[in-house]
Amino acid sequence: MSRDPLDDLLQNWRPEGRLPVRFQAEVWERVAGRSREAVPAPRLSRGAWFLFVAAVLHAVLLATGQASRWEKKRWAELKAEYFQQIDPQALAAAQRRP
Question: Does residue 41 sit within a domain?
Fold first, then answer.
């Protein structure tokens, strides 16, 4: 196994100078102070609320309109099928169509 010559150098290296006496304690006090600060809840502005409500209303109206169209189409199909069942001439005409 080959050793890198920098390994010994890095193991023996010590930084020069010293940290202030209460450096570590002050760092942890700042961390604790910041973690105690209340994080404000995100709030939407009036414009954002307006856009949100408008988008929801638009989606509801589109869904309602589409459901109404599907319902009208289905009722027309059911009505046609019903009259074909009770009217033999309409039934015969429907059966002749491809």
Answer: no
